[in-house]
Amino acid sequence: QQQVKQSPQSLIVQKGGISIINCAYENTAFDYFPWYQQFPGKGPALLIAIRPDVSEKKEGRFTISFNKSAKQFSLHIMDSQPGDSATYFCAASKRGGGADGLTFGKGTHLIIQP
Amino acid sequence: DAEITQSPRHKITETGRQVTLACHQTWNHNNMFWYRQDLGHGLRLIHYSYGVQDTNKGEVSDGYSVSRSNTEDLPLTLESAASSQTSVYFCASTPGTVAGELFFGEGSRLTVL
């Protein structure tokens, strides 16, 4: 049973546009929702994270929107740039849970066309 | 600078052979993890350790083992490599036991022929 469902699997956006990646979860015990960014040949790196006490978190051009009632969260990349081309993973873990409980989505391969 | 390194970065082996992938971190993190990454499956947890002499099975542990004799290293061993274990393997570490930022290595690409 997949605990975190991520969509789309791949996404092509024009330079300057908005990239949107969505994730949904079912386990209401989840309370930590990070996004990881992975460039080709590299390991994933934490991009931004949110806890459910806020509905939105913004860091530069990257924003997480969180909808607790719908059990959904999304990553928005404003003014997308070719350097944003990467694979993005959403993840979730339980309240007080250990790092071993971090469940990843299957990833979205994002291409920003110049 | 502190870091986490994996070796080898690329390896080709034959079915049935024993393979060990090394992971070394210099952050002095207690918690270390091994994931495998496959297209269509994302990142799946193989084994993890919360300290010296502590090892635990993850979601996809069959056919893999780890040992933790010191804080810095968590080697991953495939006792008898199978073609289904062809994958990219990532080691990660984190300082706390509660979920937080994972620091990943650059990966080891393993091909089992």
Distance between the termini of chain A: 38 Å
Main sheet specs of chain A: 6 strands, mixed
Low-confidence stretches of chain B: none
The amount of beta strand of chain A, in percent, is: over 45%
Stretches of chain A where pLDDT is under 50 for at least 5 consecutive residues are none
Q: Could you describe the 3D structure shown?
A:
The complex is a heterodimer of chains A (114) and B (113). Chain A has 114 residues and is mainly beta. In chain A, 0% of the residues lie in helices and 56% in strands. Chain A contains no helices and eleven strands. Chain A has strands at 4-7, 10-14, 19-25, 30-38, 45-50, 56-59, 62-67, 72-77, 86-94, 103-104, 108-113. Chain A is globular, with a radius of gyration of 14 Å. Chain B has strands at 4-7, 10-13, 19-25, 31-38, 42-51, 54-57, 64-66, 76-78, 87-94, 103-104, 108-112. The relative contact order of chain B is 0.33. In chain B, the strands form two sheets. In chain B, strands 2, 4, 5, 6, 9, 10 and 11 form a seven-stranded mixed beta sheet that branches. Chain B has no helices and eleven strands.
Topology:
The complex is a heterodimer of chains A (114) and B (113).
Chain A: E1 4-7, E2 10-14, E3 19-25, E4 30-38, E5 45-50, E6 56-59, E7 62-67, E8 72-77, E9 86-94, E10 103-104, E11 108-113
Parallel strand pairs in A: 2-11
Antiparallel strand pairs in A: 1-3, 3-8, 4-5, 4-9, 6-7, 7-8, 9-10, 9-11
Chain B: E1 4-7, E2 10-13, E3 19-25, E4 31-38, E5 42-51, E6 54-57, E7 64-66, E8 76-78, E9 87-94, E10 103-104, E11 108-112
Parallel strand pairs in B: 2-11
Antiparallel strand pairs in B: 1-3, 3-8, 4-5, 4-9, 5-6, 7-8, 9-10, 9-11
